[in-house]
Amino acid sequence: MGMSLPDAAWRTRPGLAALTAVLGGASAQSRFVGGAVRDTLLGLAPADTGAIDIDIATSLPPQEVLERLEDARIRAVPTGLAHGTITAVTEGGTVEITTLRRDVATDGRHATIAYTDDWREDAARRDFTINALYADPVSGEIFDYFGGLDDLSAGRVRFIGDPLQRIAEDHLRILRFFRFHARFGTQIDAAGLEACAARANDLMALSRERIAAELLKLLVAARAVAVIALMVERGIWRAVLPEIDADGVARLAALVDHEHAAGIAPDPIRRLAALIPARDGDVVAARLKLSNTNRKRVVAATQGIGDEGPRALAYRHGLAGAIDRLLIAGADVAPIADWSPPALPISGGALVERGLRKGPDVAAMRRRIETQWIAEGFPDQARVDAIADKAVTETLA
User: Taking the model in full, what pTM does it have?
Assistant: First the structure.
């Protein structure tokens, strides 16, 4: 036996052993495949068993998978039945089970598939060698049909077979090539790079949601800056996101440095805001069909920090919004690191008790007091009372 899958917490996830037994795990009818296998071989599998997506490939036809799960009283959801995928709901989380497939026809967005019982055929239709590694669920034995183990140890993301053919099958693979390289790669695969550059215009055929999902994952990868710089150099974004240029890469690089220095986790929306010119933020966020919340955040992140100081910024725009602005502007986030914006400790009722008439005067007075309270650095109740007494007295005089 060759290499085997190292122990990882996810392998003992509740309900997983029962599920693989139902699918004939020990009889080589089912194997783990994809990211869980790849990340475990790299020592990257999370300790939290629910934090990893588990995929099982099986030689059993989808209908038989459904029947076996039903007999074993394991809940089955036919999530992608047209493509042979069924989601099993186990005690420890969901598991995707997909029948071995081969492509019959593809148009760059959708594939017509046929089922097969040939593991090598199934591996051949996957995108990269490092994503086509299978593991026996019982013994952990690794099955590698296209040199994925060698590529994994060399830090090389390589298309299976002819890169141009793989890209023709699904144009999103252009972006996936760069994203996986940013996560796992050291030396970029020349044939893959040339094919992606040659077919970059094919990205225009993809939905903007799919492009957005890949870009946001790429932005938080370990080597995002270097890889996005390479993509700009090779014209990968030109057809779909021409706003991404060398200046944007420089802004992104500065933000990444500030995040590291401040010990703040990378955030894809913040990084997108830095990458896109501020004037184009809303247009690009709309084109990528981001949620309204994220669209607003992209626009707000580049609005500058004003001159009131970090705590005033956090009070007016919320902690998350202030952190975005401070990091993008290269300013210090330490003053708000362990700080929660307080509430103004005086009510409209307290101002009415001091003699103000109910109505717009009260709201205006609260705003006036609030402005001074912020300027003085959010002093305590006693100081706010003094500010209020003085302001009301002056108004009523």
Answer: 0.89
What DSSP assignment string belongs to 13-26? -TTHHHHHHHTTGG
pLDDT tens by residue, 202-224: 999 999 999 999 999 999 999 99
Helices (H), the chain: 16-22, 35-41, 62-71, 119-124, 148-154, 163-169, 173-184, 190-198, 208-219, 224-233, 246-262, 268-275, 281-287, 292-301, 310-317, 319-329, 348-353, 360-375, 381-396
Q: What is the DSSP string of 242-254?
A: TT--HHHHHHHHH
Under DSSP, is residue 259 helix (H, G, I), strand (E, B) or coil?
A: helix
Helix (H, G, I), strand (E, B) or coil at 216: helix
Distance of CA 135 to the CA centre of its chain: 26
How many other C-beta atoms are found inside a 10 Å radius of the C-beta of residue 222? Answer: 12
Q: How far apart are the first and last CA of the chain?
A: 93
Q: Give the pLDDT confidence of 96-106 residue by residue, as tens digits.
A: 999 999 877 66
